[in-house]
Design a protein that fits this description.
Protein name: PucR family transcriptional regulator ligand-binding domain-containing protein
Distance between the termini: 65 Å
Pfam family, one: HTH_30
Organism: Fredinandcohnia quinoae
Strand content: 15-25%
Oligomer: single chain
InterPro entries: CdaR-like_regulators, PucR_C-HTH_dom, PucR_C-HTH_sf, PucR_dom
Low-confidence stretches: 202-209, 539-544
CATH architecture of the largest domain: 2-Layer Sandwich
């Protein structure tokens, strides 16, 4: 690891034979990125950090205040150190300046004889440029070696060992569930100290020690979410840009490996489709279900279950990889809500069995939160926003009754397909009257029943381009309040009175009586259901 240069390294170069470090000896480990000759006292805005400054002192001469100001500016600008040629313009370094430098571990180095600054800068700049080329070459070699390892390794620990051996630093990985692993392993007191320190700043002194600990970290993101964080620390040197680049390459490799593992795990789940199909059809016994869950999800403690169906537009256009990533994303969201998930693809949909692991009384709120997160996410499949239609069936306490939840989820999707105004109703329990309408539509001629009540109004609107149906629906929704109805329809009362009079003629003056009103409201919803069904059939016909 010679991709960085410290002040200590430079002190071994030519022209640094007769030098004296009079202050900031603890800072000789500082990195040097460039060398400047400075003969002015206002330098604050001219530095980028990590510069080694050469000076004869001509700018301040015997003016101590200017000298102090310059040193403070260098410290604030995070310069690496200051080299001063003693003799021509400066003969003595005030104790006050030595104290300031020592306090900030800022090295001040004296040349006790005249030295050629031009040759020093040429030498060090050449060294820096060569090291930069070497760093690029080393980084490429590291990346190639890491990529080769990805083809053969089976566990992410091997990657952590690889970066540790290469950089000679402490490697730490912290997962989203707060699990932390150290490479190499450390004793418990050291472990506790590091866990405390990595939650704070990047670089700071180790307690009860003169050592500075340097920390670098990068998140490991999977499917748009932070899955873990990779951290390296060193107590022997300051971590450099090269360390950061190596960390970046390693984090990317870890993300690829972890995603591959998750993908393989998901593919194994797909192989269990046949058994899950039997469960959804009510063919599995309680003992068989317990054995299956104990083998595949041993940590799961079921407290009821529910089935959810996800319907994606143009399902056939998605590749297996697309669908697998979608299921991974779906699983990541709902596992945080206290569910274990089993998934299968069935009849152009993805069916999820949610095994509840928390209080059954909160399952619906947690499910709603997960659905909201899913629909608000930026997940994309084939660069098309994947906004699935989601239907959630009945919650069942007995796992052998999962087929009832599955059938309820199917019915929820069926109703959603035919009633766009209820697209936000994801739960079977929330569909209420539409469940009855759907049931009647499958077993009776619902259109005939609707016309029995509403045909005069429908015919009138078609013939005269009227708005009686809209008025009727709003009037019923306002519980017969004429003032509220007129306000919602944006019409004057006289217009409303005329329409109500027309409705009384067509439906009878008793249309607001309790029993008849309930029947009319039911038929209005049924009519909307039938109209949506007709539109759906027309769209499907046009597509075919």
């Amino acid at each position: 690891m010679n991709s960085y240069i410290t002040i200590n390294d430079i002190l071994q170069r030519k022209h640094f034979e007769n030098i004296e470090v009079i202050a900031g000896k603890e800072g000789l480990f500082r990195l040097v990125k460039w060398v400047h000759v400075v003969e002015v006292t206002n330098i604050r805005n001219l530095l980028n950090g990590n510069e080694l400054i050469l000076s004869t002192g001509v700018a301040w001469k015997d003016k101590k205040e200017n000298f102090i100001s310059l040193v403070e500016q260098l410290i604030d600008s995070e310069a690496s150190g200051l080299c001063i040629e003693i003799g021509t313009y400066t003969s003595l370094i005030p104790q006050e300046i030595i104290n300031i430098a020592n306090q900030s571990q800022f090295p001040i180095i004296l040349f006790h004889q005249e030295v050629p600054f031009v040759e020093i800068t040429q030498d060090i700049h050449g060294l820096l440029i060569n090291r930069q080329y070497q760093m690029i070459s080393d980084l490429e070699n590291y990346s190639q070696a890491l990529n080769k390892k990805l083809l053969t390794i089976e566990h992410y620990i091997e990657i952590l060992k690889f970066i540790h051996q290469y950089l000679r630093v402490q490697v730490i990985i912290e997962f989203g569930n707060k699990e932390i692993q150290f490479i190499p392993e450390v004793a418990d007191p050291v472990r506790r100290r590091l866990v405390e320190l990595i939650g704070k700043k990047d670089t700071y002194p180790v307690p009860n020690s003169d050592v500075m600990i340097s920390i670098a970290r990068l998140p490991i993101n999977l499917l748009g979410d932070k899955y873990a964080e990779l951290i390296i620390t060193s107590e022997t040197r300051e971590l450099s840009e090269y360390d950061q680049l190596i960390l970046d390459r390693t984090a990317t490799a870890l993300a690829q490996l972890l995603l591959r593992d998750l993908y393989v795990e998901e593919k194994r789940r797909v192989e269990k489709t046949e058994w899950l199909n039997g469960w959804l059809e009510g063919e599995q016994s309680e003992e068989s279900i317990k054995e299956y869950l104990a083998f595949n999800t041993p940590s799961t403690k079921p407290k009821g279950a529910v089935v959810s169906i996800c319907k994606l537009d143009s399902f056939d256009l998605y590749s297996n990889t697309d669908l697998t990533y979608f299921k991974l994303f779906f699983r990541a969201i709902f596992e945080q809500q206290g569910f274990s998930l089993l998934a299968i693809e069935k009849r152009n949909t993805i069916v999820f069995i949610f095994i509840n692991e928390r209080s059954p009384s909160t399952w619906k709120n947690r499910m709603q939160e997960g659905i909201h997160r899913l629909l608000e996410s930026d997940l994309q499949i084939r660069n098309v926003k994947a906004k699935p239609k989601i239907g959630v069936g009945k919650f069942v306490e007995r796992l052998t009754s999962i087929d009832k939840s599955y059938q309820a989820a199917i019915e929820t999707i069926r109703i959603q397909d035919r009633l766009s105004t209820q697209a936000d109703s994801h739960f079977y329990d929330d569909l209420h009257i539409f469940r009855l309408i759907s049931l009647l539509n499958r077993h009776l001629d619902l259109n005939e029943i609707v016309l029995e009540y509403l045909e005069p109004v429908i015919t009138y609107d078609k013939r005269y381009n009227g708005k009686l149906m809209e008025t009727l629906k709003t009037y019923l929704a306002c519980n017969g309040s004429k003032q509220e109805t007129a306000k919602r329809l944006f019409i004057v009362r006289q217009t409303l009175y005329h329409r109500i009079h027309k409705l009384e003629k067509l439906l009878g003056k008793d249309f607001m009586n309790h029993e008849k009103r309930l029947a009319i409201e039911f038929m209005i919803l049924s009519n909307e259901f039938l109209l949506s069904s007709q539109q759906m059939k027309k769209i499907e016909s046009d597509v075919l």
